[in-house]
Specification:
two-stranded antiparallel sheet, mainly alpha, 102 residues
């Protein structure tokens, strides 16, 4: 799986740097190592980012949506089913609104 920044889930600006490609700031980078990490990210997804007045909040929410979507498209049908079945009630609402196209 891919590596994402902890600020907005964007990729690294340069392969060995600690700069976020979206924020252009120093960040820690993490991987979605397994289905559990992906489920956690969906459950914690900010589904109100589209209504934010602050463009930074919107940009972070959009980057997070794109990163999760990217990871979901790399999963097999069985893995996607496992993700869906592991979601919390809020996560299932988020899934229907943002990620149901997978």
């Amino acid at each position: 799986m891919n590596e994402y920044s902890n600020c907005c889930t964007a990729n690294r600006m340069f392969p060995e740097s600690d700069l976020c490609s979206h924020c252009k700031e120093h960040a820690d980078f993490e991987e979605f190592n397994n289905i559990k990490d992906l489920v956690s990210s969906i459950n914690k997804f900010d589904n109100y980012y589209e209504m934010a007045d602050d463009p930074r909040v919107y940009a972070i929410g959009l980057a997070s949506e794109i990163a999760i979507d990217k990871e979901l498209t790399q999963l097999t049908k069985e893995e996607v089913s496992e993700v869906k079945n592991s979601l919390s009630t809020v996560g299932k609402v988020i899934w229907v609104r943002y990620f149901n196209k997978i």
